[in-house]
Amino acid sequence: MLRFIGRRLLVAIPTLFLVVTLAFFMMRAAPGSPFDMDRKLSPEIEANVMAKYGMDKPLGAQYADYLTGVLHGDFGPSLKYKDKTVLQILQENYKVSLTLGLSAITLAGAIGVTLGVLAALKQNGWVDYGVMGVAIIGVCIPTFVTAPLLVLLFGSILQWLPNGGWNDGALANLVLPITVLALPQIAIISRLTRAGMIEVLQSNYVRTARAKGLPAHRVVFKHALRAAILPLVSYLGPACAGLLTGSLVVEKIFNLPGLGKFFVISALQRDYTVVMGMVIFYAALILFLNLVADLLYAVLDPRVRLS
Amino acid sequence: MSTPILAPGSREGAALMETAVRGRSLWDDARRRLLRNGGAVGGMIMLALLVLVAVIGPHVVPFAYDQINKNDVWAPPLTAGHLLGADSLGRDLLARLLMGLRVSLAIGLIATLVSLVIGVAWGAVAGFVGGVVDEVMMRIVDVLYSLPFIFFVILLMVTFGSNIILIFIAIGAVEWLTMSRIVRGQTLSLKHKEFVEAARAAGLTQGSIIAKHIVPNLLGPVVVYVTLTIPAVILAESFLSFLGLGVQPPMASLGTLIAGGAQDMELAWWLLVFPSLTMVVTLMSFNFIGDGLRDAIDPKDR
Predict the structure, then answer these.
(1) Residue A304 φ then ψ, to 5°
(2) B79: β partners
(3) Contact B276, B200 (CB under 8 A)
(4) How far apart are CA B11 and CA B192, in angstroms?
(5) Which of A131, B173, B180, B287 could share a disulfide with B122, CB 3.0–4.6 Å?
(6) ipTM, 2 decimals?
(7) What pTM did the predictor assign?
């Protein structure tokens, strides 16, 4: 187990290194600079500003400086937001994204597993066809279609819910963004659960449990479900990536002050340090979740032996 | 669905002949299963219609996609000769929608082709050569897999400005990873088959064994994955366009139309609803075909 974790961490290090390197040089290759203003800076001032941020040095030296900083947990100052470091910006904005992401995945997990189990128990019945039909539609409708359509319906026409804004995380403001984020995940999770459940229900040990005379609900929840949701665990990593991309759209449409919205704006404004900080943050998050998923898988499935 | 292509003029002898015969019947079987699948057939008909409309449509509609009509600003559907209405500049939505569909389908096809070429080459070489080469190549894929790719595509678009060629390359370069894994797995199981042994015994070079014997036999799973990659690519492009990083106006893609429609939806619902519907129908057709193909080619796999 420890060896497995160690090996995975060893793969994570070059990956993160690659992320930092790619992000650094791509950002620097971009035309324009963070100090492009409407009014042109005088050459002396520009030189001063560049020197302040160490950007007068050769690119290689800047890269070395940045790497050293990152290794010490210092992601540098923002180039656009005066007096703020990248870490401060991350800290101030991650809550919105985290709230949305966690609520969406929890909701999607609960609803998706329930629907998947129901569909599997009534395989080829109308419940099954209904759930799978909805799931196919759910997979095919992208977030940037559901989001504006739901805003149009519930916000503008029915006026039940606000069109957007954060409003200190008021529930009414959260309903639509979370729904939009959760819908595709519900679709995928219910499909995975149904497939896993159908397979497990035909297995010998479930038949044995039934033959022992256990009540149906115990067979389903205690014996079958535990094995059936295994594929879901390995879906954790991709789900997280999906939520991150989804949150880019959702934060834009609902005008929420989260990391996703920040990322696009910062990239367009050439705020090098903020963009790199976010890319590293997201990459680390995805790597971490993949590791967690693998470990969970091993804990839940006795057939898997990590070595 | 055409019948499979195996290396013609089989100078490699009986072993190959045998595979050719067996392969054919497998494909016939798959085609029968596919045609019995209602969803897949529906998807194919729908897709054929969409392609037809996207190719012919722009020449039939009386407006050009970028033609500004000052008198028709915000014209609702079925007024002033605009079947689906017009936008804030009086541009005909139908004309723009057909153009957008054409652009989205083209991007889907070309970017998928890019991913196909890279993925098949990478996976076939890794799987066939094996050993250290395989280990290194697949480790690279693993590393790339765990990158937050959409962010790099966004960075790419910001860095080099969005032009359509770059969109093809960027998305295609992202989508080849899964393809290479599938191809590698298949190659590993193919390379110990008798007909490959026979080819090797006949003195063929590794390169021509890969090109002539391995790649053609990968066709099944690759075709399935291609039909699932095209909608993923269309989705990725629309996503970029939605963030303002994809196709630039006045050119249209389904993504830019939906993004524009979302901005103007309070004033003109049709600008959001019709492009969204087109998008959903397109994605659904591809997904139904992909699912049907998967069931048909590999009935064990759900």
Answers:
(1) -85, 125
(2) B82
(3) no
(4) 20
(5) B180
(6) 0.75
(7) 0.79
Task: Give the DSSP per-residue string, B210-265.
Answer: IIIIIHHHTHHHHHHHHHHHHHHHHHHHHHHHHTT-SSPTTS--HHHHHHHHHHTT
pLDDT in tens, chain A (307 residues): 777 778 777 777 887 888 888 888 877 777 767 776 666 667 777 777 777 777 777 788 888 888 888 888 888 888 777 778 888 888 888 888 888 888 999 999 999 999 998 888 888 888 888 888 888 888 888 888 888 888 888 887 888 888 777 777 677 888 899 999 999 899 989 988 888 888 888 888 888 888 888 888 888 888 888 888 887 887 877 787 778 778 888 888 888 888 887 787 887 777 888 888 888 888 888 888 878 887 887 777 766 665 4
d(CA A196, CA A205): 15
Tens digits of per-residue pLDDT, B283-299?
A: 999 988 888 888 787 65
Q: How many residues are present in chain A? A: 307
Rounded to 5°, the CA angle B197-B200-B205 comes to 145
Coil, helix or strand for B83?
coil
A23: distance to nearest CA of chain B, Å? Answer: 8
CB of B32 within 8 A of CB of B40?
no
Q: Which of A152, A244, A248 sits opposite B265 (nearest CB)?
A: A152
Going A225 to A231 to A234 to A237, the CA torsion angle's sign is negative
CA dist A126 and A148 (Å) reads 31
B82 DSSP β-pair partners: B79
In the numeric block, the tokens 């075709």 are attached to: B223
Interface test with A, best of B243, B271, B301 (most A CBs within 10 A): B243
Give CA angle at A237 (A233, A238), nearest 5°. 105
**Type of residue numbered B155:** L
CA B29 to chain centre: 25
Q: Find all residues with CB under 8 Å of A206, minimum gap 6, and list them.
A: A200, A219, A223, A224
